[in-house]
Specification:
mainly alpha, elongated, membrane, transmembrane, transmembrane helix
Length: 197
């Protein structure tokens, strides 16, 4: 993206490290919430199922079966998707990227050399990361732009309601996302085409 061209190498590196830290923080929080909700659901549904069984040791009441089935489904989802493990993975990456950002903040070193070293370390991390959820990544980018005092809306990604709703469930393609500036340029370009026809 050309909006970062006016930044020094170390500033670009700091922003990338921070964006990655924010991204992993957002993903960690999502999986922690999933873990808590799943644990609560298993506990409540399991308790309801046990209460049903205790109340009616024999009979054709199907609600006990429904609760038992729901316990199995929620417990299965929790085991298969390993929300807690995924939260820990993102917590580790968050700490790594914030550590690199702290290194970029240290005074007294050659900024260009430090930036190159940090970029090299980040490239190693990228190979270890789980697949990227691009809407979450775009939201992290927007947050970092704002925190670095770069409020130019044209540089920010436009995130629609549907994308925001499913940001932690669907990967989306990076090509599905555009900045406000790209959207404006497309409108001008499309307007120019229509005017020349």
């Amino acid at each position: 993206m050309s909006v970062m061209s006016d930044l020094s190498a170390i500033e670009k590196t700091r922003m990338r490290a921070m964006r990655n830290g924010v991204y992993h923080s957002m993903r960690r929080q999502f999986f922690e919430r999933c873990e808590r909700v799943a644990n609560l659901a298993v506990l409540l549904l399991g308790a309801a199922s046990v209460a049903q069984v205790a109340a009616k040791t024999f009979g054709a009441d199907s609600s006990g079966l429904v609760f038992g089935f729901l316990v199995a489904v929620v417990g299965g989802l929790q085991l298969v998707f390993n929300f807690g493990g995924r939260a820990r993975d993102h917590a580790m990456f968050q700490a790594r990227f914030y550590g690199l950002m702290a290194r970029a903040e240290r005074p007294g070193e050659d900024p260009d050399r430090t930036a190159a070293e940090i970029e090299s370390e980040m490239a190693t991390f990228y190979g270890e990361e789980p697949p990227t959820y691009h809407v979450v990544n775009a939201l992290a980018y927007n947050a970092v732009q704002d925190s670095f005092g770069r409020p130019d809306k044209r540089a920010l990604f436009k995130i629609g309601f549907k994308e925001n709703l499913f940001k932690n469930v669907l990967h989306y393609s990076p090509n599905d996302l555009k900045t406000y500036g790209e959207i404006e340029a497309d409108k001008r370009h499309d307007g120019g085409k229509l005017a020349s026809v």
